[in-house]
C-alpha cells in the first residue's frame, strides 16, 4: 500500500520523467518502462495513477498548460482592467514564457500536437487549449473592435503566436524569443489601431 501523501510526489516525478524522456528519445521511444526507470518507480505505478502512457501524456500536457495559464495570469494581474493592449501583450508574453521554452517542454508540445490528431483524449485537450487562446484574444480585441474584426484579429494573432512558437521550437538554437514577442505585439497593435 502506498504511503499517504505520496501520490502528488509520484505524479510530479512521473511527469518530469516523461518530459525528459520525450526530449531525449521522442514520444515513440518513450515507453512506460523507460519513464518508470527514470522516475525510480515501478511501471505499475504509471498504470495506477494515469491508466497508461496516453493518460500520462495527457497529465503532462495538463501540467504544461497549467504553467501557461499561470504565466499569462500573473502578467494580467498586474494590469489595469481597461488596458486592452496590455492584456493582449500579457497573453503573447505568457505564450513565450520560460516555462514554455525549455527543450523538454517544446518537444513535448510538438509530440502532443502530432498525437492529438490521432488520439481523441488529446484532441479534446488541444481543442480546449486552442479555444481558450482564441476566446481570450477575441474578448480583448472585441473591447476595441467590432466583433467581425475582433474575430479576424484573434484568429490572426493566435496563428502568429503558434507559428512563431513552432518555428522557434523547430530551430531552438536560433530562436529569438524577443523578436517573436515583438512581431506578435506589433501585429496586435496594428489590429487595434487600424481604421475600419
TrEMBL record:
Its biological purpose: Repressor involved in choline regulation of the bet genes. Repressor involved in the biosynthesis of the osmoprotectant glycine betaine. It represses transcription of the choline transporter BetT and the genes of BetAB involved in the synthesis of glycine betaine.
Pathway: Amine and polyamine biosynthesis; betaine biosynthesis via choline pathway [regulation]
Domain HTH tetR-type: 8-68
Residue ranges of DNA binding: 31-50
Gene source species: Halotalea alkalilenta
Gene designation: betI
Keywords: DNA-binding, Repressor, Transcription, Transcription regulation
Ranges annotated as spanning the membrane: none
InterPro entries for the chain: BetI_C, DNA-bd_HTH_TetR-type_CS, Homeodomain-like_sf, HTH-type_TetR-like_transc_reg, HTH_TetR, Tet_transcr_reg_TetR-rel_C_sf, Tscrpt_rep_BetI
A GO biological process held by the record: glycine betaine biosynthetic process from choline
Molecular function terms, GO-annotated: DNA-binding transcription factor activity; transcription cis-regulatory region binding
Name used for this protein in its record: HTH-type transcriptional regulator BetI
Origin organism lineage: Bacteria, Pseudomonadati, Pseudomonadota, Gammaproteobacteria, Oceanospirillales
Amino acid at each position: 500500500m502506498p504511503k499517504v501523501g505520496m501520490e502528488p510526489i509520484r505524479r510530479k516525478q512521473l511527469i518530469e520523467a516523461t518530459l525528459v524522456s520525450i526530449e531525449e528519445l521522442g514520444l515513440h521511444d518513450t515507453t512506460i518502462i523507460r519513464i518508470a526507470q527514470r522516475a525510480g518507480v515501478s511501471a505499475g505505478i504509471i498504470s495506477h495513477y494515469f491508466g497508461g502512457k496516453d493518460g500520462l501524456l495527457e497529465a503532462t500536457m495538463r501540467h504544461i498548460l497549467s504553467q501557461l495559464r499561470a504565466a499569462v495570469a500573473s502578467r494580467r494581474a498586474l494590469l489595469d482592467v481597461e488596458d486592452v493592449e496590455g492584456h493582449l501583450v500579457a497573453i503573447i508574453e505568457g505564450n513565450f514564457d520560460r516555462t514554455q521554452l525549455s527543450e523538454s517542454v517544446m518537444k513535448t508540445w510538438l509530440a502532443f500536437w502530432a498525437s492529438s490528431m490521432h488520439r481523441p483524449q488529446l484532441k479534446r485537450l488541444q481543442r480546449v487549449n486552442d479555444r481558450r487562446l482564441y476566446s481570450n484574444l477575441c474578448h480583448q480585441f472585441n473591447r476595441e473592435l467590432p466583433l467581425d474584426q475582433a474575430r479576424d484579429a484573434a484568429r490572426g494573432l493566435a496563428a502568429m503566436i503558434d507559428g512563431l512558437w513552432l518555428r522557434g521550437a523547430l530551430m531552438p538554437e536560433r530562436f529569438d524569443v524577443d523578436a517573436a514577442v515583438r512581431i506578435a505585439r506589433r501585429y496586435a497593435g496594428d489590429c487595434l489601431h487600424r481604421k475600419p
